[in-house]
Amino acid sequence: MLTALTGTYGDRPDAVRVAGRTASYEELLGAARAVAADVAGAPAFAVTATPTLETVAAAVGALLAGVPLVPLPPDAGPAEREHILRDSGAELLPVDFARRSDRTPARAEGAAAGPGDPALVLYTSGTTGPPKGVVLSAAAIAADLDALAEAWQWTAEDTLVHGLPLFHVHGLVLGVLGALRTGSRLVHTGRPTPEAYAEAAGSLYFGVPTVWSRIARAPRAAAGLAGARLLVSGSAALPAPVFRDLERLTGLRPVERYGMTETLITLSGRAGGPVHPGTVGTPLPGIRTRIAAEPGAEIGELQLTGPTLFSGYLGRPEATAAAYTEDGWFRTGDIAAVDASDGVHRIVGRASIDMIKSGGYRIGAGEIENALLDHPKVTEAAVVGVPDADLGQRIVAFVVAEGVTGAELTDFVASHLSVHKRPREVRFVPEVPRNAMGKPQKKLLLTGEDSRTEKPSGQVGPL
Ligand code: MLC
Ligand code: AMP
User: Fold this and answer.
1) Is residue 249 classed as helix, strand or coil in its secondary structure?
2) Whose CA is nearest to atom 1 of ligand 2?
């Protein structure tokens, strides 16, 4: 990455554009060195991960100093911020892009990161409890980005465009570190609107399905993407009608790839290769997959091994161990099938109803339920994801409560956790149906509603 920053393209004035501000690699390196000097020797540091040059400088500074970065969602409320800062032990660092240093600090050089050392700690939801810190090493990130560069023929000739949040794998690892490692120009649009994507005139575009479906509904903007080389979708299933609309409007067949915070991107279609709607391609170099299916069944849990996997959940050895099978394969919790003829994978659904994907964000039902139960008027809460044409799934909260409105509860979650974790709908019920063990029977709450998510090729999920 440093070679790309300071080598051939060091003085490209618009190497990195974020929400309208541009910087050359040399300017970025100067700001990153100043960050590295500030954090050298710390166990970790956090930044409020707004879509800005400051966040990009923080990510590069973390790598220079060998100190892991904890990117905080900028819309996180006090409960979520406190949890992340307390759990990670990271101190919040203000970053000023105008502050530059012309050399990597000696202390940071002395402590230079080994490739296996942690580079990022990304907080992500499980089915229950607060988010866990996923520790990612520089080596895992490098292995993933090199595999993706090969799969997508991604080079310094590209201009990558996206407008994704900079506190998750998609926007930060692929969308920032990927651009820097390949040396491609980066345009972060600030917000991922169809118009901003069209204006950026890139060669390579990243989006979550919600972004692609909004572009497919904006034909004029979509036509502006026709000059691109490759459109890539990920973080949730791309509906087949959106795939077809994009192909009709841009002349390009979008490539879908699959990944998780814990594994980085592991499966993808290839640039120039066959692309079928509803499929996520084949394993990237170095990745092995298997389907843990019942005898005679073709679908089952997708399990993985490879060099891109995380180092563990921060401070949670038991949760880390539970994420693996006895023979050392990572359990994704996703249900998949593999085409025996060409090895192409399809993601069919999620094993757990409590893991929701809304707008490409992974949201654990338990975390939202706990937040709702913190409200003094709420006595019971059960949260589910229901199919949504725009968001893939939308969060619906079933609550037992008196003397409070749905809007008040939505605001309560938005302000305590993150805005993007707020329920889009609150339904008041007299009770939450439970089984003999007291476990909520969420499927009963959805009776009368099609609780299945339409998947690209007609399968259903979550199972
Ligand atoms: C509404 N708003 C409220 C509110 N109700 N604010 C506070 N309280 C309330 N009650 C306001 C917000 O402030 C914001 O205002 C506006 O509503 C929009 O909110 P939103 O929820 O952010 O918008 P939405 O349209 O739903 O977002 C769609 C989206 C977003 C696609 C832009 O979902 C998104 O960025 N998704 C990307 C997720 C992602 O990157 N996932 C990758 C995970 S990694 P204002 O003023 O700000 O407009 C991964 C691995 C892999 O999965 O494989 O990639
Ligand atoms: P996260 O940890 O936020 O990265 O979310 C990971 C989850 O996103 C995976 O376990 C899948 O459920 C989902 N996901 C990512 N990419 C895809 C895809 N292309 N198709 C379907 N689901 C996906």
Assistant:
1) helix
2) 260
Q: Looking at the 3D structure of the chain, how many domains does it have?
A: 2
Q: Distance between CA atoms of 167 and 176, rounded to whole angstroms?
A: 11
Q: Which two tokens stand for residue 423?
A: 């329920």
pTM: 0.94
* 461 within some domain: no
**Could you tell me which residues are beta bridge partners of residue 142?**
none
**Average pLDDT in the chain:** 93
210 lines ligand 1 (CB under 6 A): yes
Q: Which domain holds residue 104?
A: 3-268
Assign residue 49 the CATH number of its domain. Answer: 3.40.50.12780
Statement to judge: residues 361 and 254 lie in one domain:
no
Residue 360 lies in a domain: yes
One-letter identity of residue 105 = P
As a whole number of angstroms, the distance between CA 324 and CA 320 comes to 7
Lowest mean pLDDT among 40-44, 101-105, 142-146, 430-434: 101-105
54's tokens: 């400051």
Domain co-membership, 252 together with 367: no
Say how many Å lie between the CA of residue 383 and the centre of ligand 1.
18
What are 292's strand-pairing partners?
A: 301
Distance 333 CA to ligand 2 centre (A): 10
Measured between alpha carbons, how far is residue 119 from residues 18, 57, 69, 199, 312 in Å?
Answer: 22, 14, 6, 33, 13
Instruction: Please report which helix (H) or strand (E) contains residue 379, including its range.
Output: strand 378-388
pLDDT digits (tens, 9 = 90+) for 290-302: 999 988 889 999 9
For residues 115 and 331, the model is more confident at: 331
Task: Please say if the pLDDT value at position 436 is more than 60.
Answer: yes
Answer with the one of 268, 284, 299 that is the final residue of a domain. 268
User: What span, in angstroms and rounded, lies between the C-alpha atoms of 458 and 8?
Assistant: 48
Please give the structure tokens belonging to residue 330. 């990572």
> Does residue 463 lie in a domain region?
no
Nearest ligand to the C-alpha atom of residue 169: 1
Last residue of a domain, one of 232, 253, 268: 268
Residue 2 pLDDT = 63
